[in-house]
Design goal:
This protein has 152 residues and is mainly alpha-helical. 56% of the residues lie in helices and 5% in strands. Helix 2 crosses helix 3 (39-47). It is globular, with a radius of gyration of 19 Å.
Length: 152
Amino acid sequence: MTAKTPNPIDIYVGSRVRMRRLMLGMSQERLADKIGVTFQQVQKYEKGTNRIGASRLQTIAGVLAIPVSYFFQQDNSQPLTTDGIGHLNGLDDLSEFLTSKEGLGLNKAFMKIGDASVRKSILTLVTSLGDASEEAVSNVVVNKDKGVALHH
């Protein structure tokens, strides 16, 4: 018998719980205490291995001082769908980055920017830098006999 694979939406909602908890500097133990479960249960919620019931999600939203809709938003205008999430290879990497010191710092700083056009410009800049990095990496050729060379 194989272990049940978590639903992609449960994983996504759990990652949003974790991200918000970490942004507030709250431990799993503290969140667990406030919602009346064990910290192990919070871990399972955050990994998506256990589903969060509607009333529990409402309680978590209250403790984390956000609307329930926060857990289902891909951005400010799109409701969460399973399109692209079920087989999103980078979800673990994204979740890991968003909960890292760098990811949290970047997100906190970005959220402080009130001007939407400035946020859009920053996103364009970061996207360009990412694309340039990918292009530079794809131009590197590794030859075990000759070492590393740039491919033109």
